[in-house]
Amino acid sequence: MLVQLLFQIIFLFLPIISLPISKPNCLSSCGNVSIPFPFGIGSNCYLNDSFAVDCMYDHKPFLRSINLEVLNITIPDLAIRVNHPVLNSCLSNESTLLENTPYLFSDRNRFASVACDNFAILSSNNSSLCGCLSICDESQSFEMGNCFGVKCCQTTIPTKLKSYKTSYNMLKQRQKCKYAFLVDLDLFSTSNISAEDVQISNKSQFY
Ligand SMILES: *[C@@H]1O[C@H](CO)[C@@H](O)[C@H](O)[C@H]1NC(C)=O
Ligand SMILES: *[C@@H]1O[C@H](CO)[C@@H](O)[C@H](O)[C@H]1NC(C)=O
Ligand SMILES: *[C@@H]1O[C@H](CO)[C@@H](O)[C@H](O)[C@H]1NC(C)=O
Ligand SMILES: *[C@@H]1O[C@H](CO)[C@@H](O)[C@H](O)[C@H]1NC(C)=O
Ligand SMILES: *[C@@H]1O[C@H](CO)[C@@H](O)[C@H](O)[C@H]1NC(C)=O
Ligand SMILES: *[C@@H]1O[C@H](CO)[C@@H](O)[C@H](O)[C@H]1NC(C)=O
Ligand SMILES: *[C@@H]1O[C@H](CO)[C@@H](O)[C@H](O)[C@H]1NC(C)=O
Ligand SMILES: *[C@@H]1O[C@H](CO)[C@@H](O)[C@H](O)[C@H]1NC(C)=O
């Protein structure tokens, strides 16, 4: 449950005609998630393929064009919240690509990294865009609400981001796998996630 929170990031979709409800004769929700137009479940229910939602057998909605689980759609903000895997330097340093979609990574997200004595960098299109430094002090415990440079660091991100890569510059040779993720700003203050939870989240195939 806690681990799942870690993956929550917000995409914005480009402003287009949208309604606070589903099209007539279309499913209005999947599990606990409302699916308003331009999103839709089933042919003729969504505006175009970018907004097609599949309601899986376990009542979890997936956005077909990017294959990520949808957690919430907020039409007034043109925002959708999705589960996105934590990037683990031992497995992958590359985010989901939004280049051919109407989506952007919202700047309501923060870029965060869980690592020791490391400078984590977010880059896109071969340019470094932001980064943060985390040191480690064995005596200090860490939780998400306390992500200020010890075991965990965070920073704001540029607007209009469509994809990103992470890279890591170790100050000392320490642990092998390092972690980075975008996370909804609100979750920093409301969740209590430990560094260990992030490492467990290695099992990123949560869905
Ligand atoms: C819907 O919400 C209820 C109450 O929060 C929860 O118990 C249930 O598991 C949720 N169902 C799905 C499919 O997420
Ligand atoms: C979705 O977001 C809206 C607006 O932020 C909020 O009121 C609602 O509780 C959220 N629903 C879920 C299932 O998180
Ligand atoms: C769907 O419509 C939106 C808004 O007009 C557009 O940005 C997007 O490229 C379209 N997607 C497809 C697959 O045509
Ligand atoms: C990527 O970088 C190249 C060269 O710096 C630039 O011409 C191009 O417009 C950039 N593309 C995007 C999508 O930012
Ligand atoms: C980044 O640079 C490498 C090597 O110069 C090049 O092969 C690659 O296509 C570039 N990527 C982008 C997104 O511009
Ligand atoms: C991720 O980047 C780090 C250095 O920045 C590198 O050591 C590691 O091998 C990369 N991981 C993958 C899966 O490419
Ligand atoms: C967060 O979790 C840690 C360890 O589980 C605990 O010691 C700490 O009191 C918790 N903090 C809050 C604000 O709940
Ligand atoms: C993460 O997963 C990979 C591949 O499944 C595994 O080799 C690695 O040991 C795991 N790391 C941790 C910290 O569990």
From TrEMBL:
Topology in the membrane?
Single-pass membrane protein
Alphabetically list the UniProt keywords.
Answer: Membrane, Signal, Transmembrane, Transmembrane helix
- Name a GO CC annotation attached to this entry: membrane
Residues annotated as transmembrane: none
Q: Where is the signal peptide?
A: 1-18
- Which InterPro entries has this protein been placed in? WAK_GUB (IPR025287)
Q: Does the keyword Transmembrane helix apply?
A: yes
Q: Which domain of life is it from?
A: Eukaryota
Subcellular compartments: Membrane
* GO MF annotation terms: polysaccharide binding
Looking at the record, the residues that make up the Wall-associated receptor kinase galacturonan-binding domain are: 26-82
Broad class of the protein's primary localization: membrane
- The molecule here is called Wall-associated receptor kinase galacturonan-binding domain-containing protein
Q: Which species does the entry assign this protein to?
A: Dipteronia sinensis
